[in-house]
Amino acid sequence: MCGIVGYLGHRNVVEVLISGLSRLEYRGYDSAGISVMQNDEIVSVKAQGRLKNLEAKVEGRHLDAHLGIGHTRWATHGAPSDVNSHPHNSNDGKISVVHNGIIENYMELKEMLQEKGYTFLSDTDTEVIPNLLHLNYEGDLLEAVMKTVKQLKGSYALGVICTEEPQKIVATRKDSPLVVGLGEGEYFIASDVPAILNYTREIIYLNDGEFAVLEGPALQLFSAEGLSVERPTTTITWNAESAEKGGYAHFTLKEIYEQPKALRDTMTSRIVPGQPIKLDDIHITREMLLHYSRIYIVACGTAYNAGLIGKVAMENLSRIPVEVDVASEFRYRNPLIDNRTLVITISQSGETADTLAVLRDAQTKGARVIAITNVVGSSISREADDVFYTWAGPEIGVASTKAYLTMLVALYAIGIHFAELLDTKTAEELDAIKKELLTLPEKVAEILAHVEKVKDFAQRIHGEKDVFFLGRGLDYQIAVEASLKLKELSYIHSEAYAGGELKHGSIALIEDGISVIAPITQRDLTEKMQSNIKEVVSRGAKVMAVTYAENEDVAKYADEVIYIPSTLDLIAPILAVVPLQLLAYYVALYKGLDVDKPRNLAKSVTVE
Amino acid sequence: MCGIVGYLGHRNVVEVLISGLSRLEYRGYDSAGISVMQNDEIVSVKAQGRLKNLEAKVEGRHLDAHLGIGHTRWATHGAPSDVNSHPHNSNDGKISVVHNGIIENYMELKEMLQEKGYTFLSDTDTEVIPNLLHLNYEGDLLEAVMKTVKQLKGSYALGVICTEEPQKIVATRKDSPLVVGLGEGEYFIASDVPAILNYTREIIYLNDGEFAVLEGPALQLFSAEGLSVERPTTTITWNAESAEKGGYAHFTLKEIYEQPKALRDTMTSRIVPGQPIKLDDIHITREMLLHYSRIYIVACGTAYNAGLIGKVAMENLSRIPVEVDVASEFRYRNPLIDNRTLVITISQSGETADTLAVLRDAQTKGARVIAITNVVGSSISREADDVFYTWAGPEIGVASTKAYLTMLVALYAIGIHFAELLDTKTAEELDAIKKELLTLPEKVAEILAHVEKVKDFAQRIHGEKDVFFLGRGLDYQIAVEASLKLKELSYIHSEAYAGGELKHGSIALIEDGISVIAPITQRDLTEKMQSNIKEVVSRGAKVMAVTYAENEDVAKYADEVIYIPSTLDLIAPILAVVPLQLLAYYVALYKGLDVDKPRNLAKSVTVE
Lengths: 608, 608
Fold this sequence. Notes:
Number of domains of chain A: 3
CATH class of the largest domain in chain A: Alpha Beta
Oligomer: homodimer
Structural class of chain A: alpha/beta
CATH superfamily of the largest domain in chain A: Aminohydrolase, N-terminal nucleophile (Ntn) domain
Strand order of the largest sheet of chain A: 3-2-4-1-10-9-11-15
Largest sheet of chain A: 8 strands, antiparallel
């Protein structure tokens, strides 16, 4: 994780760095720090905790510099602390580095440097880099960086400054994201575009292994081999404002309420009744599809949970066998991949390290890869063979909400597209699904307009330590995601069980007064699910059900029932999860927690 | 669940019923009850809770009868209570019924009977049966039962007595197990063999839809159509003693310590280095295997957890794609099954209702089904096309231990067998695996001989509310089972995460002082797993690792390390789970819980 930012230009660099870091806090917020070039000396200020701690520390320093680098950290090596914060400097204070990624061989490098007399203050992997740069420095910072990264194993995006060349920032990346921003006689580096969107919309996406040298009024790019390269600039068209809270207490709540729009945007021009699904960036033919023996959906976290539903939807629609797996597990289990395999990777940020690694491995073994991602120009979107962009807009809240819903729509759209190519469903059947999908924005809006019961239930359970979710069929998959949401936002230990599995062990945990939450949207399974509810009720559980409008029966057993508008069973999960997102939000709110930035979590997991 | 027993003969029926129920308590223990024919009147005695409550109630009654039925209950409809206990009688007290299963249409039948003036005392589904029998009775109990079951939807094993025919027990079954026992001028019915093994070893397994009439000195069997049928008797060769505790404090502990023997028995004659795997009851040829496009492993609870490991092992060995699913989910999601599908079902008891249903559905769709089960003659073993019997011996502890380990061996053996048929591994590679498998009994015994550290750790964590398990690769699958074991036995809310998924949400739950348990047996993944451990340690977690003898590194990060003997990574899970079974046992012991009979659980889940 971690976020880095760098600036060189006419403005006060401290303001630019703090502003940039404030937009990158979603990448981690264990600590933050900056190094600026003040009268040809490096001044570093670092503080554990949120950015405001750093701001307080900087305030008294009256810094007036125009070149510098900054960092917001998500701890991997060494606990969150001042001393483990970035930037890290060489022993003589002449070189300063910000780093996003993990250096796998840092222990070995550290021992080598210690033998040469270098000392280390922190527990981080990063601190080897400034000292290694110092060792390699022979009067040219770019050359030193090029030599140094050859010695590094692992992933990194780096920003480096040096007192010997006080007008220069050198940046490079491998397996961690980095963009360069171009202003009027000023230059930026950043882990992600929002950090610098207040200042410029002209962006260059640096490729793996490339170097950027920002110096005085010029920018030069070099390939891994040190040859000068040219790269096009991209003009960012979306608005910085659109990533602001817009009147809501939290980004997370705002993003939950943006879901009707996000769904509508994602479906627009792609799903039209009476017409085939239109996916501009997916180029898979009927012949190719007939050739594939299997689809793997691979992702992490909430995107994996979307995949669980995608599997059921896609098998139902296209009758191609689909297997879903967690990226960090899939890549290490020698999966059966060949040129008859189609892989679908899902990642909101498009930078998730394990997912990106799966994409590359799969391509190496001959598979074709479709990416579902929310970020245009992200690593995953650039390297995939086909792309489905969810047009959810920037998602700032660490717990994914609107991105998740649009990922579901993406999976249904691809499933329908495959069904059209393979003729596994009639045009009428598919048209019925398309029409229902198009009603979802309105139905989600209806759910969002009536939240009193959800708030009441959140009030009731917010003091609890353990909560269980139960579901059958697609409701189980929804329960898994709803449980993750509650866990992430409220730190309540919640867990989701398949209704039929309860008796095979987990029911031992059901005791008097425990809360159980049960989505019930699958009409065929309603009776069986209600039997499971009776089992937990007879052991003292209090049950909240989320169910379709016509299911009056459940009110006999459940303590609280949230009704959602009717739709097809196949797509009902898209509705059922919405009140459960709200539940997680309000539980966290009543507990007084930081909803947008849950403890220990970061938005985009760009390390393994 | 539930267990039923019935007797007709020269002995005091009360003693036989209580003895039988005591051997069936593993099927449920929410309440127990008996109905006996005393001077041509039915006397029913019922008590909530364990069997000893019933015994106390019966003691003062001086019953002297020779025909009766008994029941031990696992609540599904209506809370555990005296009034909801079986047997249930008709309003006039002339018909008494014990029932195992669920009557799905009982509400409808109840309303119909209420309209006719019948009244109901309990909340159970069962109580409709004696009244429906009363309505249908026209002087012949067998005819009344035959007519009645035609009106029932759901699953049942029934034992019925009636004052009008005081020398008769009528029994029948559908989708719930029932055996008939034959003694010297005496007859028995029971849900399972151990209930009557003190009295007889001659057993008839009743088929679905069949009826048994026990009357005076005779036994008659009838088909669903009412035609007289003959069925062979089976002589049970195993010893009732072998199901006793044998000096251990609990069956569960005894069964954990029986694992070296269970493993040895299961491998004997099947796995011999230098020879092909020998599986007498599996008749799958190379040609058949080449025809299969996919294997599904389907099971519930611990057997499902065994399947998770089976998938990885089998794909690794045979390179056939394997998908694992929970039976209660699989059967309702319209899975892709045809005659190119091979299904492997796993069930210790061979009676698990959802698993049995999957077996039948799969066969209907043309698939071939292999059963892995511990019970010879069980429904699943009788209906499968091929069978692998785990020779673990009777498992009485509700939490499965030795059956799980032998299921793993079964899956590896089948995987090697397929690899031999398909030539996916060299004879040398397979021989190396066989040799290592054969060392497991000794290595498990070694683990069982050194339990001090496990006991210490159990002592330390037994007061905790939440515990997390972490693993990567096969260690994740082991973590899932270890977590279930802890949950079942100790009621601690434990949950297993894949190491790489931690950062995608669950790490929000890691706070100061929380316990994390990490099996680390996969050498390739050790470094990455240890990175994950550092992540939780830096957030305050206390970690216990279970790892292979050469891994000294982990002691730097973990608070406690349990070392297990070295073996191949592929089969290491079989060893790693053993100390974690013991951990679950000792935590429950220190909490003062009923280890052999965890609350809410039953051994064999014969309802959905």
